[in-house]
Queue: 3 jobs
Job 1
Amino acid sequence: MKKKRWVLLSAVLLLAVLFCACGEKPEGEKPVASPELSPAASAMASESPLPTREAVESPAPEESEPAMESPEPTATGWGEPLTMPWGDTPPETTEERRMLAYQAVMERFLTEGLFPDGAPVDFSAEDRSKNQFTIWDVDRDEVEELVVLITTTQTQAGHTALIYEYDGAHGVNVTLQTYPRLTFYSGGTIQTGWPADDSSGGDVIWPYTLFTHDYQTGEYREAGSAKARTKALEGVKFPAEADEDGDGIVYCINMDYEHPIDGAAYEAWRESILSWEREVKVPFYPWTEENIAAIGDLVMNEAQAKVLIEQANAALAPFLGEGAVECGQEGWLLLEGYSTQEELLEGLKGPFTNRLAESFYESYAPLILKEEEGKVYIRSNSQDIIGHYYDMDLETIVDIREDAALLCSDYAFAVEGTGNGTPVKWEIGINKQGVERKISHYFCHGTQYGEYDERTVILNEIPYRTRYSLGSPVWLGEPEKVEEHPEVWGMVSKTEHYPGLEITLYDMQPNLWTGESGFTPWYIWVTKPGIPTSRGVEVGMTMKEVLAAYPQFDMMGADYSDDPVYTRWYPWYRGEYAGDCVLFYFDDNFILEKIFFNYDVSE
């Protein structure tokens, strides 16, 4: 027996020596995929309910490395590692490089069937467009990731979700690999459903694992898992002693099947991880050439902003009566091609964020639109109510990205334009929404305010500079009445009443700019005709006349009071930079009833 074992061992050693001596692999053969290179390999080899997570890096070339096309896969399916597509001249910004890198990854998936490291995807014969991807800041670190869902593989074990992140040093790397049944939360947590429900509680909750984002390492860490068990399906095997509320449901946390917990404890466990987070609906897109090419549109430039602005102007056109025809109803025009008002709102939601579209629609639709028997009508004077002020010279568009933060936007652009012949300057904020960009701020201000200080009010044709004025406006005469007010915000105030005019003043004690003590005007109300204010506007004017003097386009509507009184606020949003900050109140006939100036001179 010992002799036979020795002979067998000798034979094995001899084969090993021969293999080492002449063991070059056949031409074209690649090594077996390792978890460090191929995320799919580790996913398919896993025996756990969830595919394992591996950090995967795609080798990145030096910035000077020329662009290389990946060769066709060899007979074994392997290709070369993906190189970044910009060669010797990388794009100027990190965001541009990031989007081009994501685009290259998706093009390789679609056309070559390869992971970034060259490993083959175990695709079936199904149409690859059934797979999905998105560009989204899923980990909430203010940088978009590429999320790839692969489901058209030959076996279910090959189904996988991969979250790629670009960094300048390593190209793209995987921060999370899991099963493609994902739920995203606002704090960066991701819930991943298991490939199969091997418990009895799938109709209560589908078994899942929660991953939280580690902002120091940039990777995801498993925070816990949960699955349910039900008495209805388990019968006598059900752990009734753990079912404190008697609803026939218990939960197993972190695969601890020996110590199930009841619903209240399960909710407390889940709350300890998700805390304040809410679910986020992340849009996904099919793997099509068109969608993959659109990844590049995420890098917003002036040409792309111009296209989006043109779409915005087209969406606003119906609200200004463009395309409307005579219909025999006095004061109304028929908007052809529309059967409901909501269709107009949906048109706005194309180029504008939902918030901005809905605000504009809710402010103006009741004033200018009506719907009867499947037809939509618009007032013939809608331009006088809203203002025909989206005429822009798009050749003047410039990137003002430094102002993006002021607009609470990701990008900002400025455009010159006119409103009824009056020069205006547009400021447009654009936000990221998945693989789309939408306008989040869309407004303009006049250019006349440069004649006076930004906080100047003209009353009786006299510039009244509230920033530096102290005491009462004595040139108005003695007030009819003075109301003293108790201390507010540490200051004493009073209101002076004149015919058709009220002014509230605060005692600055002393004034922040002059060092003098005295009352400084803060709020001004004009309530009667005959008191011209800035740009000659006075009570009794029509809305059309006011809009001629204040050509700012008011996308938000600024309807702050109950019907039938309507308000217009100029300039919208950035009053401290754009001249007079004025609130106009109109009656239901669009006649100006009162004017309110609000100046915060405490700055």
Note: The longest helix spans residues 2-21.
Job 2
Amino acid sequence: MKKLLIAMIALVLAVLTALPALADKPYTGTYPLYVNRNKIYVYKEQTKESKKLKTLKGASKVLPELVSDDGEWYGVLIEDTKHGGQKMGWIRSEAVVDYYPQSYCDHKWGEWTVEKKSTCTEKGYRWRLCTLCGIRDEQETKKKEHDWSNWKVVKEATCSKKGERTRKCNVCGKEEKEEYYDEHTFGAWELTKEPTCTATGERQHTCKVCGTVKTQTLDTLPHEYEYEITVEATDHSAGVRAKVCKNCGASTAEESFDPEGTLRRGDRGEEVRAMQQLLVEQGYLNAGGADGIFGGGSEKALMKYQQDRNLNPDGIAWPQTLADLQHDFGPWEMVKPMTRAESGERVRVCQGCGFEQREVLDAGIVFERGRRGEDVRALQQIIKEVGYDAGGFDGIYGKKLDAALASFAAANGMIVEEGKVRPSDVDAVVNAWLDMQPAEAWKGEGSVDSAVNLALSVEPAGEADETGIQTYKWSVTNLGSEKAIFNALLLTFGEPDFQSEDLVMVLDGVELKANADNSASGSFNVDAEWGEGNLNFAAMAVSQADGAKWLSNTVTYDNAVKPAEKTVAPMAYEIDVNNLADGIYPVSFNQGDVLGGASGIFMNAVHIYTQDWYDLVDVSSLKVGDTIIVEGEEVPVLSVEETEYGIAVNEDQENVRAFYLAGEEDSNGFAVHGLDDLTTYTEHGVTTLVVDAAATYTDSSDIESDPVTVNFDGIVEALQTSGNNYFVPYNTTVRVEGGKVVEINRVYVP
């Protein structure tokens, strides 16, 4: 009876709860509606005292489902995040409208409609509508400019007497009058005050018609500096000097200077490359270090050489050091051949002084107790997987690693040397690990979208030497999407089977980040007597994510990966235009800027250039796929061919710049010559030049006439009266000696 009573009460409550809903009806009005307030609330019940379920901002779109019987409330569905569905909420009908409220609209404007066009006498009118709210935007448009006819002279003018002229608008007929003067007809410039290195000068020219004089200030001349030496340089130390102007006595701060031929860190060029090659030949620098750039590695190698030869170990290639480096060595003689089990040794003797240079030849990896590094950690991990505990993976070669190697050797019939890990020991451990890996464990070479994608590059570093030792450079990059641990670089002979009797050229254990963010690289030596057939290289790594084993692409000696494409830029020149060194410079100037006076001839506002030159090594190794920078433009190299005119780049190629790279006599590089035979130049600044009293000017720019040469006294008149004011770097050069111009030359340019 009690249960029946409870059920009846629940039924009555359910009916009473549902009664308000029975008064609601489906909404049949306009869709959609928009909130016309800054914000409104969605309530749980049809009363503002009930719970607020959601806030709607101005211009929010609303789609009512129900409307209250009195029309004051709309029922809308909102997300029920708690129960994963929807539920009904209520908003006041007075807060929504059936049009987009303009006060909240960001306006998306339609096209302008022009109702009245502008003229030169009246403004125009246009309007447009917002495609969201329909509001109208109106604008007046500006009057147009008058369409003037050409000037008609009413009264002729001169440079001293006003004239009068008129013109009319072709649209509205408005007439405009103005008074005007004609241009002055100035004669040649005359120097009225000569500039010096401490005071400005002045020049003037006079109108031939009215006599008006125009005056112009000339910049001060550059100081004519000469070095005064305080401390002389020696063949092993720098000197001290300062610049002193021979005209006014002004001096610069003292500076140190090197004896001629000295090389320091930061220098570049063939002289540096030659010095590095000597260090390579004598075993102080790796073969790949002879790159023509004097960096930290070259400096350390030079310091070690100086220390060994009882020279001041300052890392500076003084003339004394360079002379000492240039031993006349005989051929290498092998004292002890290297094997995978033992290091080798070779020697050569200077035929001039008897100095012996000895070189230890290590076949890849040699560890000694106490060594620290990721390569040691990699060996610890691999020998642990083979079944021998070398302690923790701390990357430190200690007694536990020796004990593990001894146990491994005893089980495999090997003999190891305590405190030393030879290449043959590493070969055996890594091959034992490789043999344990089932074929399905290897993912093989990664594809473009692989988790791990190892890209290996190997290339010989020059030719093998007379003892048969070949140096190789290598690098491996992970192009995949996950990190990997690069463990080893492997070498096999003949068939590229990288799970059988490999030689481990590099043991690394370094992390390769994803997406080619970093790479491992280095070099190693190979003795041709180690095996028969082609040399085959592959890198192996383990994925950090799942421990999967990966192999890289295979690289062989015959098809080793070529060097990456490079960008070749003109050689950089440091030129002080206000203190030009002796030499020939392409220039540009205006003929009126060459002035003569009582104390000499001055060339004002002269632009100084150098011809663009490219390094011999860069040009000789230029190949398809490289990029070369010409006049600031990056030009892709689509074809390279040697011709009688030079190296043709992009000849007969469409839609790309084509030119020749031509070497010239007594030059140390190649210059660009366009197919139109024009060279390219780089500007370094503007200056004023003093012309020497013994200078000459030669003009051969007129191909139909013989060249004309004038001496100092005729230079100003010859330049200022030339009918062709075309002095540009393509056709004009000056020769500077001792800070003064001694020759001016202009040639014919087609």
Note: DSSP finds nine helices and 49 strands in the chain.
Job 3
Amino acid sequence: MTDPGAAANPPRSGSGCGIAFGIGLILAGGLFLWVNLTDTPLALLLLDALPLAAVWWPLLLVAWGAWKVITRLRTGRAGLGFGEVFLMLLFILGGTVFTLAQRAIESQGLEPRLTEVRRLIEQQSGSFPVHAFVTEESVSLAAEGEVEILISLPAGNIRVEAASAADTAAPVTPVPESDGQEVPGAAGIEGRLQLVKRVWATDGQAAAARAAAVRLRTGPLDPATRQFPVRVEDSGTSEVALELLATLPPGVRISAFTDEGWVRVDGPFARVEARTDDGPVEVRGAGGPVALTVRNGTAWASGIAGALSIEAERAPVEVDGVAGSLAVDAEGAPVWISGAESSVTVRGRNAPVAVEDSFGPIEVVTRISPIRLDRIGGSAVLRSEFGDVVATSIEGPLEIRTDSADLEVRRARSGVDVQAAGGSLVLDEVAGALTVASGRGDVRASRLFGPATFTGDAGGITVRGFADALSVLSGDAEVDVATDALGGEVGLVTERGDVRLALPSAGSFSLAAETGGGDVDSEFTLERREADGRSRWEGRAGAGAERVTISTEGGDITVRAHPPAGGDR
């Protein structure tokens, strides 16, 4: 007899979370079993599995969904428990992380780094041959007329040195080229190339075979561009570490490119161009213009007699001594410049910039990056969106534009023009004319020796010590001014902010204070007058040589007597 409850309650399909957990145990067990049987490091399997997991992990979601549908069709039920939902969300999160990690690796060009990690793991595990064999290949180079030596390596290090006078005085002979032709020699245009090959292999015979597959090729000379190519041809399939040493006459032009490795050029060459996608670049003592392009390395230049241009991405820039103009475009790493004798232009994105001991003119434009200037002999123009600015000992005119950054200027010998939407401003010892337009930040200025003009919306404006005319115009900003001596007209105007002014007790000035609804408190004798609903106080000290006016719509006015210079403050 059939059980009536059997038709009403079909058998449950089971917990999907439990089945998924069981599948996970099977995969993990198979992975560790493979590691034990093949003696393969687990880290290597994970490195190999990352690209596959980043692309194909959604197939497991498809299989999971298909299994749920089939279960529903066969049994009539396919429940979805809390544990299964949590496991599914965790799985989707993990798969998304794999995909984002793989895309980041591809977009940032980090595949060579993973290759180095894999090689290191193989070496530590014993499966990678630890014997290194070094072979060398040397070629003489000769060409006539003005020549540009174009050196390119797919991967490897390039080092270029200037030949000595004894080397360049030797007679030049024709050199057979890779295509069987000869390049005619000419006095003064000759050099030597030395290619060092480092091979990892189990024995010398295997190393020699792999090294022989990598050959150094030169020429022919292009008569139109006057470029003499130097390159490496690799007919093998295994990696060989390369380092090319080029000894060339000082007067030639140099172009050196490598995808992975470092480039070093040392000598008074007529022109230098260097580029690397994954490694540092170093140029010293170049006699002409220099152009550097660096990614994921360091750009370092010293003693450059001509103009210098640098494009750096995620690469710190260091420049020590350049006679010509300097232009830097940097992203993601700091820029440090010293000893620039001509103009300096820096464009930075998330790249802190520091320039010191230079003679300008200097222009720095950054985004999300601080700027620091110290001991600048010329003018400077600074623009920063979200980065603090510090400028010290500036001889020429200084112009600063910031959106939301703190600013500090000390010992400015010429005029200073500042526009800041937000952030605090500190200015000390400004010899020339000073113009400050602030937004919401506080402004503190001291030891001003030229005429000064301040405008601000909110916050506070504080001035301590000025020797020339002073003008302050603010909205809600509190104004606090004190000085030991007056050397020009003073005008303080606010809408709703309070005004506090300390004047020399033995000074010579005429004072007029006017307010719409605030109070006036003065230590100097003032006479009060009423006109058009506004209160006005007027008075005079000494001969009344300088004019002082204070005006506010709704703020209070406080005037105090300041002790003369040398008295107690």
Note: The chain has eight helices and 43 strands.
